[in-house]
Amino acid sequence: MPAKLSVNLNAIAMLRNRRDLPWPDLAHFGRIALAAGASGLTVHPRPDQRHIRFSDLPVLRALIDDEFPEAEFNIEGYPTEEFLALCEAAEPEQVTLVPDDPSQATSDHGWDFAGQQDFLKTVVARLKGKGMRVSLFADGDGDAQAMALAAQTGADRVELYTGPYGGCYDDPERAAKEIDLLGRTADAAIARGLAVNAGHDLTVANLPPLARRIPQLAEVSIGHGLTADALEYGMAETVRRFRHACGQKV
Ligand SMILES: CC(=O)[C@@H](O)[C@H](O)COP(=O)(O)O
Ligand SMILES: NCC(=O)COP(=O)(O)O
């Protein structure tokens, strides 16, 4: 089965937050994404709310429940008490736990499954006890032992961190090495009974080779590259609309 696409709204939220105005409106763009066939919406609220605001969560939950009941809500983040309470209130179908520090610009590594084993076991059990699927952000470095430890936490899935692969956009040789490592990590995860998601810096160009190497890929969550493409493919029509608003003949 092809991988499902969950559209990450963080980049659109960051654009919105440049002004004290309600656009671009997250629910509006979430609706467009789901109406176009996306399987779900992903958000990664951070403690400073620099992109997703906590108040966005009930709005997006209601959008899915009221208009797209087949779709999934995926909330990503570091499991502080505040984050866990947000998840318990929004009841996403999936929570992706990410070991990011509030000072990080973006997520840039997976969990230390040995060092954080007890902590993860507790958090995974709490979320699963409330009916949420749990995925753990993981380095795609080919470490089979790490996948064994990830499975021992009780999680349902891992999300392979594809940032290093995404960074190889101009270096096909390095990209091939990264795909090999990601593929071996996925093989080890699947052998331990974990399903495999992937995300970070995925694009229309780099996704097909990854999906060929990992045919069991359950879901990809994509925000930055997808938002960049949305701007590109919508720019010409938008300029025409603004020229018309200027009074020009279009
Ligand atoms: C978990 C992860 O990989 C991230 O890609 C993240 O959710 C993206 O969010 P930002 O774009 O806000 O960094
Ligand atoms: N989990 C990864 C994600 O949601 C999106 O990451 P990116 O495409 O914005 O890099």
From TrEMBL:
Residue positions of the active site: 44, 76, 200
Residue sites binding 1-deoxy-D-xylulose 5-phosphate per the record: 46, 51, 106
GO-annotated biological processes: pyridoxine biosynthetic process
Name of one Pfam family that matches: PdxJ
Keyword Acetylation listed: no
Record's catalysed reaction(s): 3-amino-2-oxopropyl phosphate + 1-deoxy-D-xylulose 5-phosphate = pyridoxine 5'-phosphate + phosphate + 2 H2O + H(+)
Site (Transition state stabilizer): 159
Pathway listed: Cofactor biosynthesis; pyridoxine 5'-phosphate biosynthesis; pyridoxine 5'-phosphate from D-erythrose 4-phosphate: step 5/5
Entries under InterPro entries matching the protein: Aldolase_TIM, PyrdxlP_synth_PdxJ, Pyridoxine-5'_phos_synth
One GO CC annotation: cytosol
Keyword set, alphabetical order: Cytoplasm, Pyridoxine biosynthesis, Transferase
Residues that hold 3-amino-2-oxopropyl phosphate according to the record: 8, 19, 201, 223-224
Localization per Swiss-Prot or TrEMBL: Cytoplasm
A molecular-function term among this protein's GO annotations: pyridoxine 5'-phosphate synthase activity
Enzyme Commission code(s) on record: 2.6.99.2
Domain of life, per lineage: Bacteria
Subunit annotation: Homooctamer; tetramer of dimers.
Function, in words: Catalyzes the complicated ring closure reaction between the two acyclic compounds 1-deoxy-D-xylulose-5-phosphate (DXP) and 3-amino-2-oxopropyl phosphate (1-amino-acetone-3-phosphate or AAP) to form pyridoxine 5'-phosphate (PNP) and inorganic phosphate.
UniProt similarity note: Belongs to the PNP synthase family.
Protein name per Swiss-Prot or TrEMBL: Pyridoxine 5'-phosphate synthase
Species in which this protein is naturally found: Ciceribacter ferrooxidans
Organismal lineage: Bacteria, Pseudomonadati, Pseudomonadota, Alphaproteobacteria, Hyphomicrobiales
